[in-house]
Amino acid sequence: MAIKTTNKNTTPKKTRKVTASRKVSSPSASRKVQRKTVHKKKKLAKKWEVPMWLYYIIMGIVGVLFVAIFYYSFIRPYAYRWKPCYGLKGYGVCMPAGYKVHGIDISHYQGDIDWEKLSQTRQSQFPIRFIYMKATEGGDFSDKNFTANFDSARVHGFIRGAYHFYNPKTDAIRQADFFINSVKLEPGDLPPVLDIEKKAKDMNRLRADLKLWLQLVEKHYGVKPIIYASYKFKTNYLNDSVFNSYPYWIAHYYVDSVRYQGDWNFWQHHDAGTLPGIDEQVDLNIFNGSLQQLDSLCIKE
Q: With the C-alpha atoms ordered 237, 241, 245, 247, is the resulting torsion angle positive or negative?
């Protein structure tokens, strides 16, 4: 009896050939797609490629801007330090010519002071006659070295004074009361100083508050307080008849002379003085007058 066999592979021959053909051509198609992708990327990169001449121009502009910003930020403000000194040097800096009464101002930043060594400066070419000390800041900060410095200055024969660092965010009456309760000035001491360096969002309100502080402090001590402010701050924000009626202590560093056109009494001319008995650098000041005129400015009996 004959047995009928069935072909297990039922796929038509034509279909098998097509499938085989696809299997063979697949790697080639993939390479074509890859080549097209790479070509497109190269084309896109070429489209956005910066020409060399433009690249050098851009880099030159960036370099000039960097140098200009660096100069005006870090070199120009301190250029006076590298100027030749045609006058006399003292305490590590070129001293202003024509002034005889010199002084310093200190705070806890100067650390503990050897007052015996500092006293020797009175026999130097530029004798230190007066010292202002930071007493208070805002409504609740007392300089930790104030009491010791204030007492030592009197013991060692310096004309002494105290200053308050004003905080525009704190109530003016609170700040005035805080200074008054912290500082007892005696006959022979310099007038109290209002140190104002920070601006406020509302400058009109700040000016009114500063006037209130000055009035309260003047009423208590019986002497007009001194306003300490930078040259720019004074001319831009405090240049009116009321503020001009108070003695002015100008902060203006690394210049040959004071450029302020109004009256001024003290000039803080350097912030990098080196003095015996003080480890840290110190602010240097001069009084615009004679020693007798400085004495006449002090608190009376």
A: positive
Tell me the helices (H) and strands (E) count for the chain, helix number first: 9, 11
Tokens (6 digits) for 217: 């402090």
Q: Render pLDDT for 208-228 as a digit per residue (tens, 0 to 9).
A: 999 999 999 999 999 999 999
Which residues does residue 137 pair with via DSSP β-bridges, in sequence order?
141, 165
Quickly tell me which residue has 């503020």 as its tokens: 243
Which residues, including other chains, have CB under 8 Å from residue 84's CB and lie 6 or more apart? none
CA dihedral 257, 261, 262, 268 (to 10 degrees): -30
30-34, 186-190, 287-291: range with lowest mean pLDDT = 30-34
What is the distance between the alpha carbons of residues 226 and 245, in angstroms, rounded to a whole number? 10
Tokens for 55?
């690249």
Q: Which amino acid is at 254?
A: Y
Cα separations in angstroms, 48 against 36, 41, 53, 55, 151: 19, 11, 14, 12, 73
Residue 258 CB neighbours (<10 A): 16
Q: What are phi and psi for residue 183, nearest 5 degrees?
A: -125, 120
Q: How far apart are CA 93 and CA 104, in angstroms?
A: 14
Residues in the chain: 301
205 and 190 in contact (C-beta within 8 Å)? Answer: no
Active centre residues (catalytic): 105, 197
Q: Any residues with CB less than 8 A from the CB of 228 and at least 6 apart, and which? A: 163, 193, 194, 195, 196, 249, 251, 266, 268
Answer yes or no: are the C-beta atoms of 268 and 251 closer than 8 Å.
Answer: yes
Give the residue among 150, 163, 191, 180 at the shortest CA–CA distance from 296. 191
